[in-house]
Amino acid sequence: MSAERSEHYEQSQESHQSEQPEHHGVDSAGDRSARRAVTVFPFLVLVAGAVGLLLPGSFTGWGEAVPYLLGVVMFCMGVTMTPEDFRGVAKRPWAVALGLVAHYVIMPGLGWAVAHLLQLPPQLAAGVILVGCAPSGTASNVVTYLARGDVALSVSVATVSTLVAPLVTPPLTLLLAGEYLPVDAGSMVTDILKTVLLPVLAGLVVRLLAARHVQRTLPVLPWLSALTIGVIVTVVVAGSADAIKSAALLVFVAVVLHNGLGLALGYGAGRMARLGEPGSRAMAFEVGMQNSGLAASLATAHFSPLAALPAAVFSVWHNISGALAAAWLSRRTR
Q: What does the alpha-carbon distance between residue 34 and residue 26 come to, in Å, rounded to a whole number?
């Protein structure tokens, strides 16, 4: 869900402990639409997965469309970005750098550790590791807001982690997943550039050149992103429907461990760095929530539909766990 970036809030470091983030430049309709989309998204993805599992034959040959579908999601992300996102990076570069390092160290390492701990088959192990090497999840900004966290920091970390993904994700995947399957890092760089960076930049250009018209579409973008990711999940599940029956429980355990430990260690990293409670909450979601749509696309293109299964399950679970964690943290604050 990439249009959740329509949530732009500015928080001062001094007022983090007691205030809600202030709203910046986005109409309340866009805000409400993004929050509703985050709430509905897990159920939408569950339905999408069930359709792929029950009617796999209906989606034969759709795998080639997955990168283009991901491009739509990333374009929506770019459209909802503003110069304020980049100014946020400049205001607190050390905090953003910390979030970036934590994200690309903790989640890839956890993916490798979980694969070894559960002794996953090569295809599933590579898929779990690839999820860990992906950039921040596109729903993390809204979940951070719902948790009363530092949304400005969340947006900054998610933006930078997405932009550097072509340089970071392929070598990390080669390093950690290469023992399971051959990894063509060069080809993966090209795919990420085409399906992530170029659509994001194109969306950003559209936002800058046609801001007035884009503003009217913001309430629609979260739903377009949600539906597109739902189609991606349907295609991925349909491609490995037979294997799911035997591997579903194992994959679910791997995903829950990966995501849960990521949330906990991300929060811990924020506390150790003395970012304060709101900053630590932002770190938790920026580390523990992944761009599983990108992971599914790359796994389908470079490994197999079975390797994309962890990403499909992660798409559902990290939104459920994120929403539950946000509700608990918000209630604890009040």
A: 11
